């Protein structure tokens, strides 16, 4: 073997044989990086064969294949990340060692001058004079970050996709951009508002859920530039990518309702859609001995379309159990035309509407809230098309805010006419940019925007992204699955599971859980099983019941 020591932590070599791996390990190397594409030369060992031999010898292995003369900034960043993460010292190879040395040199250029780098490479036999200009361009202070896969958003969809990608391809260069310092299990906030969960149990530090091996840039996105395969950050930096996965979530537009931002959290105005006000919902419910309680739902789309009425059911259940249901006048104001969009679940829900004596007001959209006066204004369209405004006094009001795509999405080339990221509903691939995928709340799909939907979408997107990286077509399809566990009373849930077109897609046989009827087992699933499934399965790439089948729509 022709091993050349570049630094104390990295040596390079021309192509090696599988039989060389035990000797390399015996020489003290703890990791191996191959920069040679498979099939480049007859008789060349495959990356999989090298991985198996390296791991059998007790060494870590990464495959970062590059083509001479076509090394990208993404390749450089991925190589640098591997060097930083892998046990030292590292042994790298390609056909002659030049590509490995070039990757090292370009990575070094971010912190050192080009002259010293070229001299160091030349000292071990590699003349890199052909990239001297590029080395100068990579000088310290360069505003460009790069990665193989850029994931925008570290919510449920983004983290789950990263974990799934790494499950299928360890060592993949993934960068996640998200400014948040904490990660929230948002489906739990309805339960906080019903006095079942503690708010602190629904959040964790973002660093705790970030998959191992992923780089996290704590920053906000300003703009997408898919023509250049770049994203611009608000601090002025740019991120170059090979593949983009957009999972930026949804914007809660509190300001769209006049007076709501000023009133929220005071004078009986609450919402389970915020971490800090969900506990207030439960306090207001407990304290209300009589009067009028309003519950609102804005026009679609919104995240978890069942959440506004879940708040009503859990509140009504408490007042029913305390013998106050006759003293509290419950009104549900829904901007839409129906209680729930999938008719099979409506009979069970209507039974609880009747039980809690709730008055249903369809086509009634909240437009203003006056907290100190405890009044709400609703816009209602009459049969002849006229819009009238109605004032309702309240003692308590639970508000679901209108929701739109984030600002930087709505103004981007990725957006459709409605402002959502334009994707094929089956593959979740962008309709105009082949190396862009989107999932979660911001994607322009007609499914319910729920965490359950993101859980099903993430492994599909991951496998499709990897296929496109390998020059293939996306093999997996999404059937629109979403789940809405409607908490109709403490201890029982109507488990709505459905896909595109309202097709019922139950996970369990009806003898176990009949989703069209209230179920104690579904309550157990929601209250006891789903939180650990979220934290320890979905966010860790463990795809229980959601692994996609290739060539068909997801099961």
Automatic annotation (TrEMBL):
Pfam family name, one: BLH_phosphatase
Any GO BP: sulfide oxidation, using sulfide:quinone oxidoreductase
Presence of keyword Ligase: no
Keyword list, A-Z: FAD, Flavoprotein, Membrane, Oxidoreductase, Quinone, Transit peptide, Transmembrane, Transmembrane helix
Membrane-spanning residues: 144-166
Xref: InterPro entries: BLH_phosphatase-like, FAD/NAD-bd_sf, FAD/NAD-binding_dom, Prot-tyrosine_phosphatase-like, Sulphide_quinone_reductase
Keyword Transmembrane: yes
Domain of life: Bacteria
GO molecular function: FAD binding; hydrolase activity; quinone binding; sulfide:quinone oxidoreductase activity
Domain called Beta-lactamase hydrolase-like protein phosphatase-like: residue spans: 2-110
Cofactor entry: FAD
Domain FAD/NAD(P)-binding: 149-267
Xref: PANTHER family: SULFIDE:QUINONE OXIDOREDUCTASE, SULFIDE:QUINONE OXIDOREDUCTASE, MITOCHONDRIAL
Descriptive protein name: TIGR01244 family phosphatase
Organism of provenance: Metarhizobium album
Source organism phylogeny: Bacteria, Pseudomonadati, Pseudomonadota, Alphaproteobacteria, Hyphomicrobiales
């Amino acid at each position: 073997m022709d091993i050349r020591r570049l630094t104390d932590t990295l040596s390079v070599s021309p192509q090696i044989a599988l039989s060389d791996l035990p000797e390399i390990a015996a020489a003290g190397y703890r990791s191996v990086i191959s920069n040679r594409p498979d099939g480049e030369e007859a008789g060349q060992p495959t990356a999989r064969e090298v991985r198996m031999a390296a791991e059998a010898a007790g060494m870590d292995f990464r495959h970062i294949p590059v083509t001479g003369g076509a090394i990208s900034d993404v390749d450089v960043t991925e190589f640098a990340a591997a060097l930083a993460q892998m046990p030292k010292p590292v042994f790298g190879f390609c056909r002659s060692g030049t590509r490995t040395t070039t990757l090292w040199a370009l990575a070094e250029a971010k912190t050192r001058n080009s002259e010293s780098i070229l001299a160091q490479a030349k000292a071990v036999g590699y003349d890199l004079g052909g990239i001297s200009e590029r080395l100068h361009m990579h000088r310290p202070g360069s505003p460009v970050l790069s990665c193989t896969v850029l994931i925008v958003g570290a919510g449920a969809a983004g983290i789950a996709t990263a974990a799934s990608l790494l499950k299928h391809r360890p060592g993949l260069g993934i960068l996640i951009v998200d400014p948040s310092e904490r990660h929230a299990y948002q489906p739990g906030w309805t339960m906080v508002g019903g006095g079942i969960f503690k708010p602190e149990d629904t959040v964790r530090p973002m660093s705790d859920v970030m998959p191992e091996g992923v780089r996290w840039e704590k920053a906000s996105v300003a703009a997408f530039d898919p023509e250049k395969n770049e994203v611009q950050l608000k601090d002025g930096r740019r991120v170059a990518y090979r593949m983009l996965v957009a999972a930026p979530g949804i914007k809660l537009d509190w300001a769209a309702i006049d007076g709501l931002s000023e009133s929220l959290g005071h004078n009986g105005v609450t919402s389970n859609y915020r971490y800090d006000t969900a506990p207030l919902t439960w306090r207001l419910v407990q304290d209300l001995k009589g009067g009028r309680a309003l519950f609102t739902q804005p026009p679609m789309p919104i995240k978890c379309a069942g959440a506004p009425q879940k708040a009503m059911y859990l509140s009504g259940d408490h007042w029913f159990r305390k013998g106050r249901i006759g003293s509290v006048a419950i009104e549900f104001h829904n901007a839409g035309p129906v209680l729930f969009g999938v008719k099979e679940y409506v009979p069970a829900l209507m039974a609880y509407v009747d039980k809690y004596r709730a008055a249903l007001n369809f086509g009634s959209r909240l437009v203003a809230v006056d907290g100190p006066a405890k009044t709400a204004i609703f816009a209602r369209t009459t049969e002849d098309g006229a819009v009238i405004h109605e004032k309702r006094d309240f003692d308590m009001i639970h508000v679901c805010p209108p929701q739109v795509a984030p600002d930087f999405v709505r103004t981007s080339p990725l957006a459709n006419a409605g402002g959502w990221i334009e994707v094929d509903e089956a593959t979740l691939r962008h309709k105009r940019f082949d190396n862009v995928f989107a999932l979660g709340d911001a994607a322009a799909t007609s499914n319910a925007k729920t965490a359950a939907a993101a859980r099903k979408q993430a492994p599909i997107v991951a496998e499709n992204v990897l296929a496109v990286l390998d020059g293939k077509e996306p093999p997996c399809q999404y059937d629109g699955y979403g789940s809405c566990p409607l908490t109709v009373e403490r201890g029982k849930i109507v488990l709505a599971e459905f896909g595109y077109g309202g097709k019922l897609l139950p996970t369990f046989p009806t003898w176990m859980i009949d989703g069209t009827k209230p179920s104690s087992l579904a309550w157990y699933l929601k209250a006891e099983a789903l939180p650990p499934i979220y934290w320890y399965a979905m966010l860790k790439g463990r795809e229980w019941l959601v692994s996609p089948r290739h060539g068909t729509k997801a099961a």
